[in-house]
Amino acid sequence: MVNESKKPHAVDKYVGTRLRDRRTILGLSQEEIGDSVGITFQQIQKYERGKDRIAASRLYEFSQLLGCSIAYFFDGLEIWAENQPEYAEYYEKNLKEAANKNNVSAEGKMLFMHEDIFNTGITQKETLALVRAYHNLPAGKIRKSVYGLITTLGKSSKKKCENASNSNKIE
User: Fold this and answer.
1) Which of 36, 54, 113, 119 has the largest CB neighbor count within 10 A?
2) How far apart are CA 30 and CA 45, in angstroms?
3) Does residue 110 sit within a domain?
4) Domain span at residue 122?
5) Do 92 and 48 belong together in one domain?
């Protein structure tokens, strides 16, 4: 039987995944990140897998190093957690009961800047390469033009898909 206290907590897994995603987007290795904060790449692996919890001070160091807010590591957590059975069980046992005692909504909604990106697969290599290439562009007119092009193509593509599905409907 697996000792429940030894299993990684779902939130630790999520924060580790966000650390890995950000590191990958920036094109940094585990070793580079570890060296920058004075730990081994093996420790970075443990963080990224959720095997070890990341202390608040270490999370702050990562946010500074990776150029993001601490909130980045938790953005989209509720959406992700809905599909994690071990977190759902933990939520039912602990958080919901505590929220009811304190007359607080345990299902409070938050706005997530990256919700749609997260749900469409930001971890795909092609997506990560595109984001990295975009951020390598100099800020200004070129970047705005590329952004405009991609946005326009995305809208155009979505409209074509909607039109195609509407024309296939049987009346």
Assistant:
1) 54
2) 7
3) no
4) 115-167
5) yes
Average the pLDDT over 138-144 and give the result. Answer: 86
The percent of residues in the chain predicted with pLDDT above 70, rounded, is: 63
Domain contains 92:
yes
Average pLDDT, the chain: 76
Whether the CB-CB separation of 82 and 88 falls below 8 Å is answered with yes
Q: What is the pTM of this model?
A: 0.55
**Same structural domain for residues 71 and 149?**
no
Residue 126: the pLDDT is: 74
Report the CATH number at residue 22. 1.10.260.40
Residue 23 has pLDDT above 90, yes or no: yes
